Amino acid sequence: MSFLMRFCTCVVNVLCLPLHLIYAVGLYALYKRFFPCWMYRIAKNMNQRIYSKKKELFLNLPEFKNPDGQLTILEIGCGTGANFEFYPPGSKVICTDPNPHFEKYLEKNMGENDHLKYDRFIVTCGEDMGSVEDESVDAVVITHVLCSVRNIKQTLREVHRILRPGGAYFFLEHVVADASTWTYFFQHVLLPAWCYLSHGCEVTRETWKYLEAAPFSELKLRHIEAPMMFLVKPHIIGYAVK
Fold first, then answer.
1. Residue 5: what pLDDT?
2. Domain of 57, in residue numbers
3. Strand-strand pairing, 218-225 and 163-174
4. For the whole prediction, is pTM greater than 0.90?
């Protein structure tokens, strides 16, 4: 299968030459403006598909309120705010995303979730959260984002830094499939095209290995099959405590 996979990947790469050229001359940056609009349109449908999984994921969020009873959540790669409806009432939410064009959709979604307190929107990537103080938040949320960050290890370092002792990082990420499956085959073959269409998302990452190596005191992680298209069906879900 490995030879066939390499051959098919080369074919897809050739077919993607126009996309490679568009990226090389800088025109791909225009897609950055339209990507939030597309995500806003599909977010509700995606939430319906994985509603039970997200409900399960965030069930324990209230347990991580600080001694004053306040829960401050920082979401990395917040996008359009698809997770807001799952956050406990009264939570203070800090949103970050490297794409500034998400902000108008984010504010609209926050208006529809007035059970939350919107703190601010920070334009930054997960690897560089320098504008957020050490040990300043009770919970960090990252869902379907570690597939596209440039450096998973550095992103997790930043998560650990900004979490208060006893705080928790909640995650839901699609990952690479088992190597014996056809899903694994197509994840690798279609990767060149998928990366362009999904704004840098890589479906071949073994994200769980980075979580297992991170310096959290406790890790609750499960592999699941999410009710999504086959390329992104393999998922990990859980939380890690600092």
1. 87
2. 1-241
3. unpaired
4. yes
